[in-house]
Amino acid sequence: SAVISQKPSRDICQRGTSLTIQCQVDSQVTMMFWYRQQPGQSLTLIATANQGSEATYESGFVIDKFPISRPNLTFSTLTVSNMSPEDSSIYLCSAARGTSGYEQYFGPGTRLTVT
Amino acid sequence: DQQVKQNSPSLSVQEGRISILNCDYTNSMFDYFLWYKKYPAEGPTFLISISSIKDKNEDGRFTVFLNKSAKHLSLHIVPSQPGDSAVYFCAASARSNSGYALNFGKGTSLLVTP
Predict the structure, then answer these.
(1) pLDDT tens-place string over residues A49-64
(2) If interface means Cβ-Cβ distance under 8 Å, which residues of chain A face chain B?
(3) Of A88, A101, A111, which is closest to residue A49 (Cα–Cα)?
(4) Buried (b) or exposed (e) across B37-53, using 16+ Cβ within 10 A?
(5) Which of A50, A59, A91, B36 has its CA at a distance of 20 to 30 angstroms from the CA of residue B104?
């Protein structure tokens, strides 16, 4: 398994601002992912964070809104840009060893509230 | 479009009895299935998984059954313990442009009562 930490654990932000969430893994991992869980909904994959190259986004998510960085094999950031109340969610980072990405280990999540 | 469905939002079971959590999926390309457990204020924790080439996988008190023809899987917990009280998410994986994306259900909240 892998131990994953996220910062901040929660934040309250104003509409129109941006927030960057950090994800740190305790050991090198091949794959890192970012998910969103809106209230009452399931976890939805935002993007795969690729080390040294641009992230791969799922349908409905774009780089301008959710820029992602992954400078090395243990760290990634997700920025939620130009926030609106609809962005209020829990944002979770996950990591997987190997290239299959099947068994992912999750961080504790960042609870974001946009007012 | 929800490709993984957990139709029971909650389940209550007495300690010592069997808990059965169900999950249905619609995408026949899914080839790997996982169950995650989530406590409040924590991230999901991987519990058990099964490949589409198998119909059963067992790990201690936890067993996952897969019925591919029915596109249905279930998680059995025997015997149930109060510490099992959590939200359980079913997830399925199929290769996408981004690799192996996990598609999650909405979760079933399990309460095990003493």
Answers:
(1) 988 888 989 889 999 9
(2) 1, 4, 31, 33, 40-45, 47-48, 56-58, 92, 94, 96, 99-109
(3) A101
(4) bbeeeebbebbbbbebe
(5) A50
